[in-house]
UniProtKB/TrEMBL annotation:
SUPFAM superfamilies: Acid phosphatase/Vanadium-dependent haloperoxidase. Keywords: Endoplasmic reticulum, Hydrolase, Lipid metabolism, Membrane, Nucleus, Phosphoprotein, Transmembrane, Transmembrane helix. It holds the Pfam family PAP2. This is Polyisoprenoid diphosphate/phosphate phosphohydrolase PLPP6. Its EC number is 3.6.1.68.
Length: 294
């Protein structure tokens, strides 16, 4: 026997409307089955259509999205990450041993230089000795040494004396050139307590490293001790002059301790260059011939 055809709601087509309307589960009688169907249809009709624009608006209004805790797909181009900090603004959390040693040495150098600057001003603890220190400063300046060497060279009448003086002039010119070159490369400022009242300063003299007086003192003292026959007291006096001149640079506040220490080392090595390139009538006859004609 064929089964009766059913409608969309699952009822047989052969049943009457009265029986269906009078059934206890119909909506007319307030049955639970009809209410359940109406509730499901209401939910399906109120379900929103997937709109990407609305989804993006609701996502942008979310406090979690405003805090930027996670990116949303389809929410537009993501913001670019912040640029990295430059090298000087970064904190070096793992400094090397060499960096720590250099910083410690620099701190000790500045502290010791300030402590030894007892003649930096008239109001300093040793301010009354400042004129004597400035006189000692002039004794190691390059201009008096250059002018004195040229004068002695013009008055000399022996080949041996001219040879020594010619090489002393060459050493002084080399010292001025190398010190100016190194100061221009390093460009270390003079101590803060220094008073720029030096004798005949040039543009490069505003820099501190190395000390030109210290290089000249070491160079000249080694030159004199090797090429002049002096008694022992005079030799000791030459060494004391070089040492006190270097110390006066720190006491006047002109230089730091490391400037003077490196200046002594540079002046000592500069003499080795002069000794290696020693000028004589045999290897530089033109200079001596020109000087004799003058």
């Amino acid at each position: 026997m064929p089964s009766p055809r059913r409608n969309v709601e699952g009822r047989p087509l052969g049943t009457s409307a009265s029986s269906s309307s009078s059934s206890p589960g119909s909506p007319a009688h307030g049955g639970g089955g009809g209410s359940r169907f109406e509730f499901q249809s209401l939910l399906s009709s109120r379900a929103p259509v997937a709109d990407p624009t609305c989804a993006r608006l609701r996502a942008s209004e979310s406090p979690v999205h405003r805090r930027g805790s996670f990116p949303l797909t389809g929410a537009g181009p993501s913001q670019a990450p912040p640029p990295p900090l430059p090298e000087e603004d970064r904190m070096d959390l793992n400094p090397s041993f060499l960096g720590i040693a250099l910083r410690s040495l620099l701190a000790i150098d500045l502290w010791l230089s300030k402590k030894l600057g007892v003649c930096a001003g008239e109001s300093s603890s040793w301010g009354s000795v400042r004129p004597l220190m400035k006189l000692l400063e002039i004794s190691g300046h390059g201009i008096p040494w250059l002018l004195g060497t040229l004068y002695c060279l013009s008055r000399s009448d022996s080949w041996a004396g001219r040879e020594v003086l010619m090489n002393l002039l060459f050493a002084l010119l080399l010292d001025v050139l190398l010190v100016a070159l190194l100061k221009g490369l390093v460009r270390r400022r003079r101590p803060a307590h220094n008073q720029m009242d030096m004798f005949v300063t040039l543009s490069v003299d505003k820099y501190s490293f190395p000390s030109g007086h210290a290089t000249r003192a070491a160079l000249v003292s080694r030159f004199i001790l090797n090429h002049l026959v002096l008694a022992i007291p005079l030799r000791v006096l030459v060494v004391l002059w070089a040492f006190i001149l270097g110390l006066s640079r720190v006491m006047l506040g002109r230089h730091n301790v490391t400037d003077v220490a490196f200046g002594f080392f540079q002046g000592y090595m500069q003499y080795s260059i002069v000794d290696y390139c020693w000028l004589s009538p045999h290897n530089a006859p033109v200079l001596f011939v020109l000087w004799n004609q003058q």
